[in-house]
Structures are given as structure tokens and as C-alpha cells.
Amino acid sequence: MTGAETELATLMATAAEVLDGVSDRFLEGRGAPSAVAKGSRDFATELDLELERTISGHLLDRTGIEVHGEEFGGPALTSGTAWVLDPIDGTFNYSNGHPLTGTLLALVRDGEPVLGLAWFPPLGRRYAAVTGGPLLLDGKPQPPLAPAVLDEAMIGFGAFNIESTGRVPGLFRHRVLGTLSALSSRVRMHGSTGIDLAFTAEGTLGGAIVFGHHPWDNAAGVLMVRCAGGVVTDLEGVDWNIESGSVLAAAPGVHAELLDMIAATRGSGYTAVSDRMDTAAPYGEERNP
Length: 289
Hints:
This protein is an alpha+beta fold. It contains seven helices and 14 strands. Keywords: Hydrolase, Magnesium, Metal-binding.
């Protein structure tokens, strides 16, 4: 191993120990009600706040690297090195006792994830990857993704409100869903970006369409799909980075078909500009989530 590879392996082992250490608490808190409103139809539970404080504290103490979390923010992610953490991915699932929920953690260097972990305690599954290496499932290397075709693949699809007028409007998402359903009848909406990307990396899903841009949702899974041999861009086909406004992740072959489908569906209600984040307001300490 090179020095850089040894460093990342050590950081992954440390991060895994930290996430293992809070798994029981994660399971104890399932069903926790909303505690902090974060906007229309979004909230955090007390466990979100507690787990972020606990995980962030342990990571900083043990690695000396600051953490940017969903609930409390942190250092900028476009330069330098930082952990990026989603203490509870799929908060609605978690609050309702649904098992498709977990903790996502990535190490980001200069806007690119180099280490990713996705722990799903209700499922008893632990995914991890280091840049350049294979996807690990419960510590065991997984085979690379084989080329596939869309009409034989299950596709994870991001949640939407048809009346939404945000960056990627609900009407456009609805059109994408309708077109996709004609090409693959196996569309799945899990309510967890972490699940969609981890399942894509392991090959359960042939691909995932993620309309959200938050790095704590996307960074770990993006790296895992890449390490598994998948293709990851935004919805326009631009290679994903920390400022991307969406994620399109899929096995070879499926990604190209999905990208063509999205391009054909694009029209009124969606523009190329809406798929890129506002670079005037990068993620950093000044952000108040």
C-alpha cells in the first residue's frame, strides 16, 4: 500500500468503529417524532441531533478532521478535507419505524469523496468503499457491476411533490417517472437516497435517479457506485462533484439509457441551469441548515 492508501484504510477502520458504536442507539430511537421543523414537509428528530453530535465528536477526537453534518453544518466542502455526515438518512422512514434508513458518512477532499460508508442498522448491512478499491458489503469485497439494460433493471426514484416548484420541479419529475415507467416497469421509491445508491452499488438496483443536491445524502453513495464500476453524473451527464445539483447513478449501459431518457423528457418546467447549485453560496460554515 502507498502512504495515501494506508491513511484511507486507517480512516475507514476508525469511521467504521464510530458508526458501529452508535448502531444500538440508532435502533433504540426508531419511531422518534419530529422535533425540529426544517421547512415544508421536512424535519429532524432529537436522534438526528444527538447522533450528529456524538458521531462528529468521536470523529474529530480520533481523526482530527472536522465534520460537516446535515443538522449543524461545518467546514466548506469545496476545498480541503472534511467528513460529511447524515446521521439519519430517510428521516420520515426512521420516524415511522420503516427499516429503510441509516447513517451516511463520507470523507471529502477538494470536493470529491474519497471514502464512503453507509450503515443500515435495521437491515444489518454495512457498506463501505475507498477510492480505487472495491465496494465492501459487511467487510467483503463485491464483484464489479456488469453492463445491463434498462428494461431488465429496477430503478430507484427520488421522492417528489408534483406541485413543487424548486430546482427540479415536480412536474418535470412526474414526466420523468411516466417515461421511465414505460421503459422499465420496475421503479422503486424507497424514501432514502442512501438506500438507492447503496443498492445501485451492490447491483440490486440497476440505477438511481436522485433529484436532491445535498452532499450528506449523496457523497458516500456516489463513491460506492464509482468503486463498484458504475457510472455517476448529474442529470445532465456532467461528472458528479460536491456542487452537483442531482445524481444519476447506474450500471454501465443502464446509465446511458437513463441519460438519454432524461434528455428526451426535458422541456418546459426544467432547465439546465436548475440542475447546478448556486456556486455563489457553497457549503461552508456560514450555511445554516
